[in-house]
Design a protein that fits this description.
The chain has 106 residues and is α+β, with helices and mostly antiparallel strands. It is 51% helix and 17% strand. It contains 5 helices and 4 strands.
Length: 106
């Protein structure tokens, strides 16, 4: 089953240009870190955001941690590449690096 979950995650992050694994959904984030991630992406004007609510699927919740070898949620992927969690997103947003990364999504 683990390989099925890893394949599902791989398909999600490679099919959509911007993917956020989060607790809750963009309208109702279920933790402050997920809310922060959504605020940043909204501030940057991300329109094609694909979100996955890890609270709805325990296999995905654990599987995404294994996929990125990253222990926390949220996790942001841009064009199939793991970017980071809420703290990294905040730093990249403040430095302008995240905007550059998102602007170059083609």
């Amino acid at each position: 089953m683990t390989t099925d979950i890893q394949k599902r995650i791989h398909d999600q992050v490679t099919t959509h240009p911007v993917v956020l694994y989060m607790k809750g959904n963009p309208r109702f984030p279920q933790c402050g870190f997920s809310a922060n991630a959504i605020r940043i992406l909204n501030a940057l004007g991300v329109k094609e955001l694909y979100t996955v609510d890890v609270l709805q699927d325990e296999d995905i919740r654990q599987g995404i941690k294994d996929y990125a070898n990253w222990p926390t949620i949220p996790q942001l992927y841009i064009r199939g590449e793991f970017v980071g969690g809420s703290d990294i997103m905040t730093e990249m947003y403040q430095s302008g690096e995240l905007k550059t990364l998102l602007t170059n999504q083609a």
